[in-house]
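User: Modeling request: complex.
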Amino acid sequence: MNLLKRIYKHRYAYFFLLPHFAFFLIFFLLPVGNGVYLSLFDYNVFSKTFIGIENYREIFSDWLFRKALLNTFIYTFGVVPLWLGKALLVTVLIYPFRKPIKTFFKTVFYLPHVTSSVIISLIWLWIFNPTFGLLNYFMKLLGLNPVIWLGNKLTAMPSLIAMQVIMGGGSTIVLLSAAMASIPEYYFESAKLEGASSWKIFTKITVPLLKPTILYALVMGTIANFQTFSNIYVMTQGGPEFSTITVAYLVYTTAFRDYNLGLASAMSMVMFVILVGLGILQFKWLGSNVQY
Amino acid sequence: MKTSWKVLLALLLLVGTALFSAKITITWWINPWRIAPPGHPADKPLTGEEFPKWISEEFMKLHPDVEVKYVLVTNQEYAQKLAAAIATKTQPDFFKGPVWDSRWAKSGLLEPIDDYLSPEDWKDFYEQCLKAGYVDGKHYMWPWVYGTNGMGATMLLYTPDFEKAGIDWRKIVNEGWTMEEFVEVCKKLTWDSDGDGQIDHYAIGLGAKSDMVHNVLNFIYAHGGRLTNEDETEVILNSPEAIAGLQFVLDLIEKHGVAPKGAEALDIYGVINLFHTHKVSIGFGGPYEIGRITRYVREGRLSEAFYPVVAPFPHVEGKDPVAYARGSGFIVFKQSDPKKRDMIFEFLKFITNHENIALLETLNYLTARRSVNELLYKDDPYMNEQVRRYAQIMDKYGMEFFGSQEFPWSQMNAHFVAALEATFSKSKTPEQALNDFVREANRILKKVK
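Assistant: Request completed. Predicted assembly structure:
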């Protein structure tokens, strides 16, 4: 009764929350629930047999899934810190400029964000082309031996990470710039009057006050890069020798090449649980003294 | 009472009219096949939508009681779109796409075509085209096209380079070439074109990614390697012959230096691009590839049109060359309404009748009908010669590379590509790479069976 009364009291708030919740329910909760359900079946489009946790047993005993999981971690933890560092550096460097110049740089860094990732991947395929690519052209000019960037299992993953770091971070720069603009100018002025060095100002004022935005970018970046797919699909197809295969790509091939939707669902669920875990960890470690 | 009688009569009339005028709706999917329908301006680029639109409209003119709806699905999204459609029971009535799975036939999702093929069809369609959809004693693929786009079947020679190097390409085209002759020719076709002391023009380009396995498999097959034993119960692609075949391909890059390094990072389009831009003199492909050159020139993607000639793959002394050959066609999903099923097959007969199937000529493809192929390209001596040679090679040496319809090659392909990548990047010897592949392939085979 008490609950009903409270709901009635806040009926307008619930009314306005309802559409959002409905979308959340239809497009997130139901698919996740269905994914959990499907992961318990041997489901291959043609037939559906309940097999309990057999799919989970199978994926954890499969070396390819374990490799894909490891690669996904390497890719994510390779990209996110570098990409966040780059965004932070660019933001701090362009901050002192006048507004039009800042806007110019923000636009330049944001452009790849609004370009199709497939197009970007195709451009980078040409850059990495072993025989006639731009990168090897410069290597030759410098008297260095050409490298088969995407064909060598030692260089393929770093190449993908480098590409993502160079092309990514545009939206984070915009976010960090907005957050920096909200820091009162007198903080910096007082620090300068006290004789603080630029490094001290950066580490003791800028970074702590940007922490909520950094945390947000970190969580979102981890989630996005953990699910990376299009650049793998276009550029390496998981090769060479599965050195760039990621969980998202493996889910795709398992579902749409092998038509094993139950197994693919189980893989997705593992990815989901890991992402939730990573999100919680990030909030716990970095969010402890964040003030919103 | 009188009024109710009139209302009832009117209702009956309405229902009757609705029933009698109800159209049969047929939906079909097709990936973009740039076939020019009759009357299409020669200088107007094709998008792939022209043919399905035209053929659907033509069929509706003949059958006003039928409504045909076509959907153009790109190659990249075909597999997932089809899987999603089957899973949600929203599949089209029939389709022609780059994918199909024999398990669909096994689980009763498809209509067998056997009863709808006329005695003339049985004789006229190539056996390899009919075999493409043969599962558990029934045929499930209505033949339309004969051959792939030539990958793994034939080679294309850029003759000006051959002439520049003093090589008699006509002899190769007419009499074939042994592996040793091929290597010698390749050496002559590899040079430094800008005089900087570095090789920048190669005889041939090789690629290991995705679909390029046709070409490497051709060399392995030509050396006597085979994918499986007779009854497909074991993968045996690590036989001494298979290893020799893969070693031969590797030697083209590493020992003879006639192909650029980096095969492990090049895909089919990368390799074709090397040929289009004359960075190599030998390309992979058949008549379709020649058509692509013309199309690329029209679309501004290539600056110059050129006319390569079709040649067989090289062969081992004393053995025949091999050519990857298979057909493709339309797949019909199970129908509950017999009238509609009949109409779908009527439509397929219409698409593949002698007149309409011949439109594949505009795409530089061979049709699944013997009788039609004899009449193709009559007005174009150059294309006529290339197509005739392509058909001869396919007919004489054509074989299936990837096992029967029930063989789970699609699940093994990634492991074979990994073996090629390991070979070309020299992280494994051909023997180690093929041994690893065979182990994985047999594991998959065991799981599937």
